[in-house]
Write a sequence for this structure.
């Protein structure tokens, strides 16, 4: 290789290096391009036969490279042309800046030369301002001399309520004052000295007093607008015209303040008398509520007060709609404004009334007035008033929370009254129990006292009255009544217990011959109260019980406890009367003569006759319990082994006597009917025991005991052992077999 070639090669080697210094990514980009080219060539020429198309590929790539070079040259040329144009613009801007700089330098030199001349003009400006002020003073001398007389005349017009004329004079005085202040100011940017400002204000001090006096008269007219409208609305019309004039003046002065002259606002502007007009109107509406106190509206007076408010407000609204509305511009919407004012004042007044210590009748009057009267067509629901304003714009007269508090206070007040009445009714009931006469009966012949009638009527009346307010209050009142009913029934049951203890303490001295009658009347009373309770519960809405956080009342359970206690006392009284006769059961005299069964029947018959005075189903319940008493006493007599048979004839006689007694009892309880009145028949045990005792073959006793145990699962080994003893013919082996069988049946 020649030296020239080596030099050329060295230059070629340095050239990429210099390009890499300018563009560090060039070398990396070239390497990536070579790699991509090799990859493409390895794919295209992977087989020898593909080399035939090498010339075609070389030509295509040469054309593509030439196209790229052409686009690059075009882009570089466009870039260079843009740079050349920008340089030309910069040269032109630099030349213009130089010219402006020279012009500013010359202007500065000329300004420095004229500074002395400007100082000589300052004195001339001061003289000019003083001359202008003196000219304003001279031109306003006639007005200034007339100010005191104008003020006095305007005062006279205000006192005589010639409001339009007074306002016209007042506007002249204010205009004079504003013109003088403006002229003394001299220019839009000028300012008055403190002495000048004070001098003008002192000279026109009567104007401010006139404004206050006129405003006072205006608001007096507006506050008495309702009375004037019915007599002579002219003063009210004059007041409205003055208010509108003042509003127009306020707008004009505000526009001048924002205009090119930037004239300042006069003292006391803007007056905003239209806003004051509506404030005075609302103040006049609220005046009717200020003198009201709890002492003036206590008790029935509150309902009268609310009724007076209704009639007064509706009369005022009629005056506003038919008279005052025509005295004001339409955009005043005076009826709507009066509605709003009345509503707001009522809201405040009723909030105050709700905070008083009200009784139930007073709370009812407030709730009824708020929820029904106020929104009725007789008041705010009137079609003409609804056309003036949507009801939703006014909002609630009392908030939902306030209504809930009122309802809670009502329920608590009613609860206190109900509790007192229930206590008094219970005391009257206890006094009735001591009367020496039979209880009263209803039209069906059932015993009853005044207690259930008083309680039922009281609770039903409270629920009916509460429903006049709404279902929610009705549900709360019923819930309260059920609580009090439960408390009453618990005290009633305790009173029954005390009544029974007192009767048993010394019956020979403190015997009440109508003790049983009043027990039966108490049971009938409970049945009536149960029906009343169920009726009240049906009146409640299905979701009312879940709305109360306390445990819901359960007066029906208390009723059941009271009825069970009364029935137990009735059965104790029956046992007390049967006690002298019961020792004669299952004895030798009883076996021979049947005593004392007839006497027992007479006592039971007397009781059953009284049980017929008890309302169903308790009458049947008492008869059933009476049967159980007789059966239990028979079983108790057997268990005492009063009679042990000595022969088969005695066993037969004992069984026959037991069957005869059962027939007597069955006729006593069921009359001529074939079967019992209820599914349970306690007397059926007596024939079963008679068959057991009458059985001739002792070997059949295990089978008989098996049937007896199947029919009466609560039979015990002691019961069977006593029955075997009463028979008197059971050997040890048979007894053992019978008891073993009974034990096996119990285990099974």
């Amino acid at each position: 290789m020649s030296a020239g070639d080596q030099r050329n090669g060295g230059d070629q080697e340095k050239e990429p290096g210099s390009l890499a210094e300018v563009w560090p990514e060039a070398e990396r980009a070239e390497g990536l391009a070579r790699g991509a080219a090799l990859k493409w060539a390895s794919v295209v020429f992977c087989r020898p036969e593909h080399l035939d198309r090498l010339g075609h590929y070389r030509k295509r790539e040469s054309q593509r490279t030439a196209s790229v070079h052409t686009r690059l040259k075009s882009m570089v040329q466009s870039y260079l042309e843009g740079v050349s144009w920008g340089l030309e613009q910069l040269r032109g801007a630099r030349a213009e800046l130089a010219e402006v700089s020279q012009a500013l330098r010359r202007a500065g030199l000329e300004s420095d030369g004229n500074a002395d001349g400007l100082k000589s003009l300052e004195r001339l400006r001061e003289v000019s301002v003083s001359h202008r002020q003196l000219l304003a003073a001279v031109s306003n001398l006639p007005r200034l001399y007339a100010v005191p007389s104008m003020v006095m005349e305007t005062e006279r017009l205000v006192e005589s309520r010639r409001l339009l004329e007074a306002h016209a004079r007042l506007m002249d005085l204010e205009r004079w004052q504003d013109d003088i202040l403006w002229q003394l100011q001299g220019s839009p940017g000028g300012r008055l000295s403190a002495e000048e400002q004070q001098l003008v204000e002192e000279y026109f001090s009567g104007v401010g007093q006139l404004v206050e006096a006129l405003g006072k008269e205006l608001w007096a007219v507006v506050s008495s607008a309702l009375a004037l409208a019915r007599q002579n609305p002219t003063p009210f019309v004059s007041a409205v015209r003055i208010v509108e004039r003042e509003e127009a003046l306020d707008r004009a002065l505000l526009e001048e303040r924002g205009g090119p002259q930037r004239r300042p606002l006069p003292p006391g502007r803007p007056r905003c008398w239209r806003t004051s007009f509506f404030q005075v109107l609302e103040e006049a509406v609220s005046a009717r509520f200020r003198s009201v106190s709890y002492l003036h509206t206590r008790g029935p007076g509150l309902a009268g007060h609310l009724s007076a408010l209704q009639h007064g407000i509706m009369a005022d609204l009629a005056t506003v709609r038919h008279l005052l509305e025509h005295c004001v511009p339409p955009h005043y919407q005076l009826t709507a404004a009066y509605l709003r004012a009345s509503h707001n004042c009522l809201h405040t007044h009723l909030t105050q009334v709700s905070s008083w210590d009200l009784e139930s009748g007073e709370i009812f009057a407030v709730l009824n007035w708020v929820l029904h009267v106020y929104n009725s067509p007789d008041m705010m629901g009137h079609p003409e008033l609804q056309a003036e304003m949507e009801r939703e714009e006014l909002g609630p007269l009392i908030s939902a929370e306030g209504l809930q508090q009122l309802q809670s206070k009502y329920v608590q007040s009613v609860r206190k009254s109900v509790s007192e009445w229930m206590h008094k009714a219970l005391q009257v009931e206890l006094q009735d129990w001591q009367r020496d006469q039979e209880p009263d009966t209803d039209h069906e012949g059932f015993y009853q006292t005044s207690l259930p009638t008083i309680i039922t009527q009281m609770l039903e009346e409270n629920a009916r009255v509460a429903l006049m307010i709404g279902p929610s209050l009705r549900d709360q009142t019923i819930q309260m009544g059920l609580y009090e009913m439960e408390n009453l029934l618990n005290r009633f049951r305790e009173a029954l217990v005390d009544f029974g203890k007192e009767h048993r303490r010394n019956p020979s001295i403190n015997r009440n011959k109508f003790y049983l009658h009043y027990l039966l009347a108490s049971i009938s009373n409970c049945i009536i109260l149960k029906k009343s309770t169920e009726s009240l519960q049906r009146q409640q809405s299905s979701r009312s019980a879940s709305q109360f956080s306390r445990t819901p009342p359960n007066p029906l359970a208390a009723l059941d406890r009271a009825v069970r206690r009364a029935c137990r006392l009735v059965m104790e009284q029956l046992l007390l009367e049967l006690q002298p006769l019961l020792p004669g059961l299952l004895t030798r005299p009883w076996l021979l003569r049947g005593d004392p069964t007839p006497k027992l029947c007479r006592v039971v018959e007397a009781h059953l006759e009284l049980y017929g005075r008890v309302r169903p189903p308790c009458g049947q319940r008492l008869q059933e319990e009476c049967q159980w008493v007789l059966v239990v006493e028979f079983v108790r007599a057997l268990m005492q082994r009063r009679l042990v048979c000595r022969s088969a004839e005695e066993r037969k006689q004992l069984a026959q006597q037991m069957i005869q007694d059962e027939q007597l009892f069955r006729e006593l309880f069921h009359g001529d009917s074939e079967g019992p009145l209820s599914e349970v028949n306690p007397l059926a045990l007596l024939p079963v025991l008679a068959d057991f005792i009458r059985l001739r073959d002792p070997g059949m006793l295990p089978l008989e005991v098996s049937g007896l145990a199947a029919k009466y699962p609560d039979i015990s080994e002691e019961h069977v052992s006593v029955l075997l003893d009463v028979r008197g013919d059971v050997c040890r082996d048979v007894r053992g077999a019978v008891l073993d069988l009974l034990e096996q049946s119990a285990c099974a």
